[in-house]
Amino acid sequence: MTTEAGQDRAIGRVEGKLDQIIKDMDRARDDRKQQYEKQEKTDRTLDEVMRKLQSVDNRLEKVEEPVADFNRWRERGVGAIMLVSFVAASLGGLLVTFGKKIWAAIVG
C-alpha cells in the first residue's frame, strides 16, 4: 500500500504541475489577446492619423499656389510704391531746384 500511496502522491504532484502549466498557458493567452487588442487599437489610430495628415497635405497643396501668387503681387505692389515714391521725390527735387525759374516763366 505504501507504493500505491506514493504513486497517488506522485500522480497528485504531476496533476498539480499540469494544472499550473495550464494556468500559465491561459494567462499567457490572455496577455497575448490584450497585446493584440492594443496593437489593433494603435493600428486604427495610426490609420486615422495618416488619413488626417493626407487631408491636411491635400488642403495645403490647394493653398500653396494662391499664397505664392499673393506674395508675388505684394512684392510687386511694394516695388510700385517705391517707384512712385522715387518719381515724386525726383519731381519735388526738380521743383525745388528750378522752382523760381519755372514760376518766373509762368508768371511772366
From TrEMBL:
It comes from the Bacteria. Keywords: Membrane, Transmembrane, Transmembrane helix. The chain crosses the membrane at residues 78-98. This is DUF1515 domain-containing protein. It comes from Ochrobactrum quorumnocens.
